[in-house]
Design a protein that fits this description.
The chain starts with a helix and ends with a helix. 77% of the residues lie in helices and 0% in strands. The protein is an all-alpha fold. Helix 7 packs antiparallel against helix 12. It has helices at 2-8, 10-20, 22-46, 48-62, 65-76, 82-90, 92-110, 116-137, 150-160, 172-177, 179-210, 214-244, 250-272, 280-292, 296-299, 302-305, 314-339, 345-369, 389-400.
Length: 401
């Protein structure tokens, strides 16, 4: 039910962030989603249908997170530092899995209120506190952020140099059907099919094929995310270096990083499909290898590309992208469960080969059709103007007094 709720709030989340701002939308998304997380154990004890409602709401409230970041970073991420900023920021996805998987396994066995409910209480309260602090101290624009210097604020604003106005109408047709958009949507679907396999099915694979207990399961499942987190940090700096020093064109970096994030897990899954319980640590090695370079998609690959081609409509494009990318999250488990109904290695081999095919197809489609510049349908009219840099500098000076 989580993925159903998450699915339906993607485009509304992107639209809302363009109206009230990325910071407010993102903060409220975490805050409300964390509240419903805390209430999930209570709902589970009362009624199954009430539990399903709260799981749906948790997904619905968390849905706007990534679309709103598209709007947020359009004000905060200078082009020459975009890979580093987005890479480090989104590395929290891997870091969260590193912490949550082993800690969740421990809480299931030793936590309070029966074990598993403590996971929802602790993670939910942490999210509420974090979101409250974020909303209290983070501003929509560098011009209004009190915790940075005037010079830093001035640098960010003029590096981005956003237009004052935007096209009068949202170009929905182009957002959905342009080849640059389609390249992102197709590669996102194929990538997320594999990513959700790693996130949601790896524990099952470890239990059924590698045959580890739940505590080892949590620890081993977090290792690939740890390696991926390290790669994300390092690769984000390399991507910005390659672009800023003109070592590679921007489009070449996007294609290179997307290829690394798609073909590496593809090959790892092919090898993994022939590993059984007699070589469990070899299986773990291929899991780590497959997950290691996934993060390149968000440090120099197609996820960064999502912030480049749609200009002021980035939040909406990312909402559509995430909506499409969520589909594997709720159809994948059903398909995998049907294929692996007898929990045999041969059945998992079918799953891994299917996923490898999608990795390959999605990457090739992206390499053929991707673009990296703001598309014509997202640009402002010629009569619209950009900010007056000198007057904005005066405003910043006045703000600091």
């Amino acid at each position: 039910m989580f993925f159903y709720g998450y699915f339906f709030s993607q485009i509304p989340g992107g639209w809302l962030s363009s109206k009230i701002g990325g910071v407010r939308t993102f903060g409220l998304s975490i805050f409300l989603g964390s509240i419903t997380t805390v209430f999930i154990p209570f709902a589970a004890k009362i009624n199954l249908y009430l539990l399903l409602v709260f799981r749906f709401l948790t997904g619905f409230f968390h849905g706007p997170c990534f679309p709103s970041l598209g709007t947020l970073w359009s004000h905060w991420a200078p082009p020459t530092e975009r890979s580093r900023i987005l890479g480090i920021a989104t590395s929290g996805v891997q870091l969260g899995n590193i912490i949550a998987l082993p800690f969740g396994g421990i809480l299931c066995q030793h936590g309070f209120d029966g074990g598993w409910p403590s996971i929802f209480y602790i993670y939910g309260v942490f999210g509420i506190v974090w979101a409250a602090l974020f909303l209290a101290f983070f501003s929509e624009s560098p011009a209004h952020q009190k915790s940075i210097s005037r010079e830093e604020s001035f640098y960010i604003i003029h590096s981005i140099n956003k237009p004052v106005n935007r096209p009068k109408k949202t170009p929905w047709k182009s957002l959905i059907t342009s080849k640059a958009s389609l390249a992102i949507y197709v590669v996102t679907f194929c990538f997320n099919w594999g990513a959700y396999l790693y996130m949601t099915q790896i524990p099952t694979y470890i239990r059924d094929v590698l045959q580890f207990d739940i505590e080892s399961n949590g620890i081993l499942s977090s290792i690939p995310f740890l390696v991926s987190w390290i790669v994300v940090i390092i690769s984000s700096f390399i991507a910005d270096y390659l672009i800023s020093k003109n070592k590679l064109q921007k489009i070449s970096v996007r294609k290179l990083y997307t290829s690394l994030s798609m073909f590496t897990p593809m090959c790892a899954l092919i090898f993994l499909s022939y590993v059984d319980c007699s070589s469990p640590y070899l299986g773990v090695f291929f899991l780590i290898l497959g997950q290691a370079l996934n993060g390149c998609s968000g440090t120099g690959g197609f996820f960064i590309n999502s912030h480049e081609i749609a200009g002021p409509f980035s939040g909406i494009l990312i909402g559509i992208q995430n909506m499409i990318g969520t589909i594997p999250g709720f159809i994948g488990p059903y398909i995998v469960g049907h294929i692996t109904s007898n929990h045999k290695l041969e059945e998992w081999r079918i799953v891994f080969w299917l996923t490898s095919f999608l990795y390959c197809f999605g990457c090739i489609f992206y390499l053929i059709f991707t673009e990296v510049e703001v598309q014509n349908w997202a640009k402002c009219d010629k009569t619209q103007t950009r900010p007056n840099l000198d007057s904005e500098k005066i405003d910043l000076n006045e703000m600091s007094l």
